[in-house]
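[recover] target loaded
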């Protein structure tokens, strides 16, 4: 085991920085103050989140998860992991290496084995881009064994039970607007996911970071309530799971 402590930072939206066994993994970087019609409601990320990365993990092709302008600002010495078929979208950005993964495939980043797993989500890059099956990632370290699951964007599916046991689940609990479309989990769905995968600990993500221009003041509750609703429902559906709510920019040590 690395002498560097395991920790997780919720950077915002679906962007997290996982430090697992000393390996630095950044997920779905969305780092700008604006993205199309969305405005960031929190401070932009600190540069420390972008440096000394070992890998960048991309879950799917939607612009708020594979954001080219944000990718241009992160450490290009990192390995880029993308769903199979998404490699052309990030080709030419200057990353050291791009690896495409299908659900069920694995790769090694330092001492961490990364498993691409199914995600129940739209596979297109709108409006007329390529298609690539969305994935989540289970990141596994040894001595002691621990498994972290970054779910990406997904709806609940029964196959989540095959991921068990999960030591830390990073679960989307909302999105970027007042309503949710298909292929997303609300707080109740995320609690079901925590139960299915037998998560020992969970951190809610994909909430409170971006909102359409002009609507944030009208939907303040939607910006702030989803992780707390998830905590309440998880206490009923997944009582063995300890939930930690991190505000965008906050870090916690992972025992």
């Amino acid at each position: 085991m690395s002498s560097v402590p395991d920790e997780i930072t919720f950077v915002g939206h679906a962007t997290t920085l996982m430090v697992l066994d000393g390996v630095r993994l950044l997920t779905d970087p969305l780092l700008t103050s604006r993205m199309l019609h969305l405005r960031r409601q929190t401070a932009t990320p600190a540069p420390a989140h972008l440096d000394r990365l070992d890998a960048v993990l991309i879950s799917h092709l939607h612009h708020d998860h594979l954001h080219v302008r944000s990718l241009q600002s992160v450490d290009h010495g990192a390995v880029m992991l993308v769903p199979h078929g998404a490699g052309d979208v990030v080709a030419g950005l200057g990353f050291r290496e791009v690896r495409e993964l299908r659900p069920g495939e694995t790769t090694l980043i330092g001492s961490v084995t990364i498993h691409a797993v199914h995600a129940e989500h739209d596979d297109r890059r709108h409006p007329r881009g390529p298609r690539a099956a969305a994935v989540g990632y289970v990141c596994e370290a040894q001595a002691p064994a621990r498994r972290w699951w970054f779910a990406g964007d997904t709806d609940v599916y029964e196959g989540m039970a095959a991921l068990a046991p999960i030591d830390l689940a990073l679960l989307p609990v909302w999105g970027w607007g007042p309503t949710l479309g298909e292929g997303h989990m609300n707080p109740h769905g995320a609690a079901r996911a925590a139960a299915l995968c037998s998560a020992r600990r969970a951190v809610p993500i994909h909430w409170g970071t971006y909102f359409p221009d002009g609507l944030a003041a009208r939907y303040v509750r939607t910006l702030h309530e989803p992780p707390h609703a998830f905590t309440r429902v998880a206490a009923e559906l997944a009582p063995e799971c300890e939930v930690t709510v991190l505000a965008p920019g906050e870090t916690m040590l992972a025992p």
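[recover] notes: The longest strand covers residues 112-118.
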